[in-house]
Amino acid sequence: MSCGLGAAVLILILLKLQPDKSAVDVNALKKELEIRHEKAEELQVTLERDQLDLEQLKSKLASLSGKRDALTEAISDATSRMDEKVAEIKSVTESIVKKPPLQKADPVQSDLGGEEKYLLGLKVEGTRIAFLIDTSASMTDEKLVDIISRKVASDAEKKQGAKWRRTQRVVKWLANRIPKTSKAKFVGFNEKVFAIGPTRWFSGSDATAIESVFQGIETIVPEGATNLEAVLEDVNAQSEPPTNYYLVTDGLPTAGTSNFVSMNPFSQCNSLFGKSATISGDCRLKLFQHTIQKHGLHDKRPVNVILLPLEGDPKAAPAFWSWTFSTNGLMISPAESWP
After folding, report:
1. Which residues fall in a coiled-coil region (predicted)?
2. Residue 245 is inside which H or E element, if any?
3. In angstroms, rounded to a whole number, what is the distance separating the alpha carbons of residues 72 and 80?
4. What angle do helix axes 281-291 and 316-326 make, rounded to 10 degrees?
5. Torsion over CA of 107, 111, 117 and 119, rounded to 10 degrees?
6. CA torsion angle for 154, 155, 159, 164 (degrees, to 10)?
7. Mean pLDDT value across residues 97-116
8. Cα(141)–Cα(311) distance, rounded to whole angstroms?
């Protein structure tokens, strides 16, 4: 009996301790499911949008890559064209230096001698312009050894001297710079004085006369001494003397026309008396000063000198500068590339 009662009590205790079964909230679960479904749809939309953006980025990247390749090729082509242009400019520049173009104002076409007034500062002007061109033996070359060597050469070889070829270009440059309203005359001198081209004054617009100067300078053989006194005497003795002088030379004179025997300053200058084949630098300077004092100073008659290089005549530049300065003229010793 007691055993049965204990079993009954145990059963009751076990039933009391067992938890109650709760009811499931289906609506809450449905709502949670809907929320999660909505989030999934949103994530899917975001994913699709990101995939679309990714495809667009890939397309842009491919386009930029293509543009990069095209740009690289374009830069290469541009660099190549630039190199060609640089080479062309260099070639044209060298051509301009060697063969300057004809000016519109040039009466006669010549491929020798460019304008370059901006560089030289030399302006050809005047009512009657006398161009005095030194044609002595020293006008063939710059170095004394070459001058001496060419003295015994043929006339053709003398005419091919580098300095003489340059002198010819200078003459042509000057001839093409004569103002149309001016008159001009080209006079050559060594031991003698002679006309280069027309013997008369000619107009700067006279193409035939200028062409005659061009032809005349080509026929001259540079030889003999430098007699500056003789050429100044000649041009100043004309009925219409020059108003402006342009002298092309390479140094101080080596001969004169005066009676030097009776002049004390020249007592040691034996070459002026025919007693020596050479003349010293001091005697050349005295001869120059005598010549200028006697024939080279005239009121309002500017003297301009183009002094070409000559070895062993250091007193020439200051002497010629002093002469041109005193007449309001100009002395230039141009660059080797001119004209």
Report:
1. 23-74
2. strand 244-249
3. 12
4. 10
5. 180
6. 90
7. 54
8. 9
Q: How confident is the model at residue 315 (pLDDT cuts 50, 70, 90)?
A: very high
Q: Report the pLDDT averaged over residues 124-146.
A: 96
In this predicted model, what pLDDT tens digit does every residue of 167-189 receive, in sequence order? 999 999 999 999 999 999 999 99
What's the CA gap between 289 and 296, in Å, rounded? 9
In 3-state terms, what secondary structure has residue 200? Answer: coil
Residues 6+ away with beta carbon under 8 Å from 305: 246, 247, 248, 249, 320, 323, 324, 329, 330, 331, 332
Locate the domains of the chain by residue range: 44-98, 117-332
241-258 pLDDT per residue, tens: 999 999 999 999 999 888
Could you give the dihedral angle defined by the CA atoms of residues 248, 272, 266 and 230, in that order, rounded to the nearest 10 degrees? Answer: -40
Measured from the Cβ of residue 240, the count of other Cβ atoms closer than 10 Å reads: 11
User: Quick one: pLDDT at residue 205?
Assistant: 94
Q: How far apart are CA 165 and CA 161, in angstroms?
A: 6
* DSSP state for residue 50 in the 8-state scheme: H
Domain over 117-332 is classified CATH 3.30.830.10 = no
Question: How far apart (Å, rounded) are the C-alpha atoms in residues 294 and 291?
Answer: 5
- How many whole angstroms separate alpha carbon 103 and alpha carbon 109? 8
C-alpha–C-alpha distance, residues 58 and 280, integer Å: 91
Its pTM stands at 0.67
Q: What's the pLDDT tens digit per position in 287-314? A: 999 999 998 888 889 999 999 999 999 9
Whole-angstrom distance, CA of residue 20 vs CA of residue 43: 40
Residue 261 is encoded by which pair of tokens? 């025997």
**pLDDT (0 to 100) of residue 266:** 77
Per-residue b/e over 46-82, b at no fewer than 16 CB within 10 Å? eeeeeeeeeeeeeeeeeeeeeeeeeeeeeeeeeeeee
